Amino acid sequence: MDLDLNYDVIIIGSGAGGGTLARHLAPSGKRILLLERGGWFKREIENWSPEAVFVENRYISPDTWYDKEGNSFQPQAHYFVGGATKMYGAALYRLRKEDFGELKHYDGISPAWPISYEEMEPYYTQAEKMYYVHGERGIDPTEPPASAPYPYPPVSHEPRIRQLYDNLKNAGYHPFPAPCAIMLDEQNPPTSRCIRCQTCDGFPCLVQAKADAEMVGVRPALEHSNVTLLTNAKAVKLNTDTSGKTVNEVVVEIKGKNEIFKGSIVVVSCGAANSANLLLISANDKHPNGLANGSDQVGRHYMFHNSQAVLAISKEPNLTYFQKTLALNDFYFGMKGFDYPMGNIQMVGKSLGPMYKGEKPIETALMPMMLLDGISRHAVDFWLSTEDLPDPNNRITVGKQGKITLTYTPNNQVPKQKLYEKLKSMLNHLGMHPDYLIPRNLYLKTNIPIAGVAHQAGTCRFGKDPRNSVLDVDCKAHELDNLYVVDTSFFPSIGAVNPSLTVTANALRVGDHLLKRLK
Prior knowledge:
- This protein has 10 helices and 21 strands.
- By secondary structure, it is an alpha+beta fold.
- The strands form 6 sheets. Strands 1, 2, 10, 11, 12, 13 and 21 form a 7-stranded mixed β-sheet that branches. A 6-stranded antiparallel β-sheet has the order 8-15-16-17-14-20.
- It is globular and about 70 Å long.
């Protein structure tokens, strides 16, 4: 290959962590190599097709993992420039201030982070600006302090969701505009990139108006001549020098052949499962259990939220196109009669008939599409998210030939059920049929819950004590001088809101540390 093989920084993965970090470091002039195992996301009319996306699984990347019983499954992973953000719902929430401290849950303790909310706050503000986040402060009762207003006004509610918003307020609740990362200008529709379509949440954006890591991170980074992107380039091993203290080679598979690149600093951002996998398969005589794994914590504490997608059947048609504009945190820390955290309720993208075929292929096999379209016409769709707790036995392990096994046992299920029951009890106030709250599995085609990996986190937790963490507070491996991890792997707990904004904010925080180091 006609490539320079030596760089100041090598970033492995171009998603929320890696793509954001690449943009932040790009103006430094340092020579940066960004590696992406997938290619550019193809722009095609199928981007907007529910059949292609949800029934044919057109954009799910081929991969096979195994559960604790040894059964194979296909994770709902997306390997493209921009990573998982190409298909995300662009809901960018801050963790609550309390999430950074120790919290007592029904099933145990959510541990404190080694940094405070106040330390992360300025980076949340930067990330919201970078990712075009629309929102409004001062309405959500659990909202943490912020040093600036949202950079863009909240996305307006369409009539049915405005009615839902008003009904919730009249019932004494505190709905608030969901923080949306979209390139929308409602005051100037002719020039707005976003057109408020029905195919945003769970779809790729054909008009490139979703603020994902490709559009916001990678593309601006590539405007700098010192940044090089290699696509279809999978990192397969990290080698260290003879001391075992420094990663001196990144082995990359390109077109079936291995190439070796060298970087003064190496940053891993492959997603929580694949980052752990890369460290584990890079074991050597100095690191017999895998890189940075002297604490035996790499791969452990896998989390991905106790989430439920449900649809309520509205008494009147729901003709909403862009539905993901409303959220509710009234029960985030519990409710009267239940003193443990329950979690977040938010809208998800409007369900469409073909989605049900993809989610429940057996149950819907004999149902005519006209019936499914009729259900979707009256559906109002919610996403309920409850924190799952870090458990060292919930973990990623790697077997022969890189076989990934995800061992996971659910926990904290009672608050999850309480949140569902609370929503159901509210339906009479919301203009819904109280007997028709139907469980949905928005992102999962199979019956294996762990296949939904959109919110995976926790496998390389950061902390101050090398005995029970993998990374230090700057997300550098305790045991290596130049190895960092900036995806959701670093989370010691996951909270109950979408993790993407915390990943991007942390990438900016680590980026500032690296800029000082690179001087």
